[in-house]
Amino acid sequence: MKTKIFFTVLTFVAMALTSCNDDNKDEKIEPTLYTRLGGIETISKVTDKFLTNVAADDLINSRFEATVGNHYRLQLLRNNLIDQICAGTGGPCQYKGETMLDAHAGMKITAAEFGAFTADLTAALDYYEVAEREKNDLLAILTPMESDIVDK
Ligand code: HEM
């Protein structure tokens, strides 16, 4: 009798599990861009390479002279950029810096400078062989910020 009850319960459990599997069959959980990029590790090394590129870029490096000359300020910018990309791509970070409008207010940044900045980021993504899809997805998040950054 006990054996019969055991097998009956086992059959119900098996049926319940099978039906759960059926329910989930069509649910494809797409990883976040943060995960697809390679998480905080890739974002951190791409940001460091990007800042090196900016420092060597004669089109825009004068904009960052004061930042590069102050270790604390440079670290703050680095951390803000990492948090911004991490949070913007669905990662577990919180961006605590200023809005793009406030951070760049009064700088009168030109469209050409904005282009140079994103080209330096693209070069950093290429340096670490970030795949085309992830690269374009990240740039698609950052480029619309142009309206809050240029000519302000
Ligand atoms: C999508 C493009 C851009 C993003 C995502 C971005 C992001 C940021 C962030 C997160 C900060 C720090 C804000 C804070 O301190 O609270 C910042 C500051 C700054 N950005 Fe941008 N930025 C962009 C474009 C540019 C461009 C094109 C220039 C100039 C060529 C520029 C020049 C600066 C400067 C000079 C600072 C101040 C750095 C400091 O505090 O020492 N940014 N930006």
Automatic annotation (TrEMBL):
<keyword id="KW-0408">Iron</keyword>
<dbReference type="InterPro" id="IPR009050">
    <property type="entry name" value="Globin-like_sf"/>
</dbReference>
<feature type="binding site" description="distal binding residue">
    <location>
        <position position="104"/>
    </location>
    <ligand>
        <name>heme</name>
    </ligand>
</feature>
<keyword id="KW-0349">Heme</keyword>
<dbReference type="GO" id="GO:0046872">
    <property type="term" value="F:metal ion binding"/>
</dbReference>
<keyword id="KW-0479">Metal-binding</keyword>
<dbReference type="Pfam" id="PF01152">
    <property type="entry name" value="Bac_globin"/>
</dbReference>
<keyword id="KW-0813">Transport</keyword>
<dbReference type="GO" id="GO:0019825">
    <property type="term" value="F:oxygen binding"/>
</dbReference>
<protein>
    <submittedName>
        <fullName>Group 1 truncated hemoglobin</fullName>
    </submittedName>
</protein>
<dbReference type="GO" id="GO:0020037">
    <property type="term" value="F:heme binding"/>
</dbReference>
<dbReference type="InterPro" id="IPR012292">
    <property type="entry name" value="Globin/Proto"/>
</dbReference>
<dbReference type="InterPro" id="IPR001486">
    <property type="entry name" value="Hemoglobin_trunc"/>
</dbReference>
